[in-house]
Write a structure and sequence with these properties.
The chain is of the alpha+beta class. The chain contains 15 helices and 14 strands. Helices cover 41% and strands 20% of the residues. The strands form 2 sheets. The chain has a 7-stranded antiparallel beta sheet. The protein has a 7-stranded mixed beta sheet with strand order 12-11-8-9-10-14-13. A hairpin with a 4-residue loop joins strand 3 and strand 4. The two termini are 48 Å apart.
Length: 433
Amino acid sequence: MITLKLKFKTNELGILKNDERIYSSIVRYSYNRFKEKSLSQTEIYQDLISKFKNFPSHLITSAIREGKSIYSLNKDKKVCFGKLKQYNKKLISKEEYQSSRNRGFTSEGSSTKIHHGNQYFKIDLNENKIIYKRSRNVHIDLNLYILNKRNRTLLALLKESMQNSTDAVTFKIKDDYVFITYDESKINLNEKFKDLKTNRVLGLDLNPNYIGLSVLEFNKNDEFKIIHKQVFDLSNLNVTSKKSSTDKSSKYLTNKRKFELIQICYEINKLMNYWKCSKLCIEDLNIKQSQTKNKTFNRLCNNVWNRNLVVNKLKMLSVIYGYELIEVNPVYSSFIGNILYGNENTPDMIASSIEIARRGFKKYSKGWFYPIFNVDNLNEQWKQTLSGIEDWKSAFKEIKKSKMMYRFQLTDFVDHAVFRKFYKKLNKQIYIF
């Protein structure tokens, strides 16, 4: 077993200190009862659960076990909790003595699948914190100080292990440190992808019903070729009718949708390794409540779509496997993508992903964000409409004003896919163009 020690800061230090005090007193009480052999472990638990009604029951169990462990290791020895000798000799103050009796508090790991490794603690790597779920209504953020690369990768691996298996992970809080104990045989720090190519990027266009994916390879002149195009069709996973959203199967469908989205993240991760892409490019998009009159569309975007689930999972996988995740401004990405790259073999969501990938390749380079606007390089259908236009913003307004359709819809060109597979049990389809 290995223990990771991390420093944190929180606004709820008073609650943590009180939990440490109660937990420590339960350990001492339990040790004394075991030494006296006056109560069994079950009787001790029943006695304490009635005295500390507002204290987390699992922490009481952990404290009793800790008291029993201390007794088992020191049956014939006298145990002194804290620096009593120094206090009696007046070498330390009363406050220092009381502080020395503080053992912190420990939440033992749980192998039960629904607890995901630990009942009370959750790792949130995106916010750089650990969440202490003290009760249903009290969640305390333990904001971690800046993590080095190794610890960040280790936390990502621990979170992945806790989510996908029944591996138990124990958390302990003492003062302003959190100690995480885990089985080192379950964690492999050498899982990073090897031989990734700096000139290859994978772009994603995330939408409720479709995920467009493309892989670009750049040459020395910053010109690219498209080496892979793919669409994940999730429309069968999204229930939009009122009847379906209120029946008993609604919860099942929600869990099914989340599970399949996570599996798609793993498939994207495999594609990153297969094509040896060094960057994964997605939209930097904060979803706001839709203001359209279409209630079905509003529900799909604001209630059904689990975009944050996908983004957070991809961020965690990027840390584990060593590629870079780039978030780019998506403004006009769909419009530019369809105008420049859209055709019967490159539907809307793929065309958008190409533009997102192109932007992510050199995100921080000046003048790279928009491709060069040149009417002569556009398809014949746009040259007359956009004659005299000098930038993409003006071109977008002109096309909108003319009410011309610029998107290449998947449903219109699905027969052009070179590979198509429908996973009936998974309620999803995959198209490769």
